[in-house]
Design a protein that fits this description.
The protein is mainly alpha-helical and about 160 residues long. The chain folds into two domains: about 20-75, no CATH class; about 80-140, no CATH class. The chain is built from eight helices and five strands. The strands form two sheets. It has a three-stranded antiparallel sheet with strand order 3-2-4, with helices on both faces. Strand 2 and strand 3 form a beta hairpin. The mean pLDDT is about 90.
Length: about 160
């Protein structure tokens, strides 16, 4: 099935949206990103008739049914939280910081329970949050490009103009 060229930023946004309760897919037929919540998926599995669901959820339920019934690989699952390896990204960022004290503080912050919160607090306290977001976005961009290559999907990397 030929896939329309997709916006790389849409893939990146989808990767960032995926989480414990959200599954994200690329619809190879349309080139659009599809997000489904666990609630949508459960409602699609439980309800015999989508018309029994609230009107605002009916489209998502039908979409969840299409994804579930897909036997032609129309819907490709985007990388999820387990593919992103956020902790490794934080460790890579900590190692990339030239200031030894700041680097050491960040490396300490990511050890043990509560690492994500301590890391976030530390980047803000050090005034390097913007650097972190650029680093993280670059990692997500690399992951998105590799995912596209792995699935033979052509992408468009031109920025969208905002009105």
């Amino acid at each position: 099935m030929p896939v329309p060229r997709v916006k790389l930023q849409s893939i990146i946004d989808g990767i960032e949206m995926a989480g414990p309760e959200i599954s994200v897919y690329l619809d190879r037929r349309t080139g659009r990103i599809v997000e489904l919540s666990d609630e949508d998926i459960e409602a699609a599995a439980d309800a015999d008739d989508a018309s029994a669901a609230p009107e605002w959820q009916r489209g998502q339920i039908e979409l969840a049914r299409e994804v579930d019934a897909d036997t032609e690989d129309r819907f490709l699952s985007l990388p999820d939280q387990f593919d992103v390896h956020e902790w490794e990204t934080m460790a890579g960022f900590a190692s990339s910081i030239q200031n030894e004290i700041a680097s050491s503080l960040l490396q300490s912050a990511i050890r043990g329970g509560g690492a994500f919160r301590r890391f976030k607090d530390t980047i803000h306290a050090l005034g390097i949050a913007e650097q972190w977001y650029v680093f993280r976005n670059n990692r997500h961009r690399e992951l998105a490009m590799q995912w596209c290559r792995d699935h033979e999907i052509e992408w468009d990397d031109t920025p969208e103009l905002k009105a």
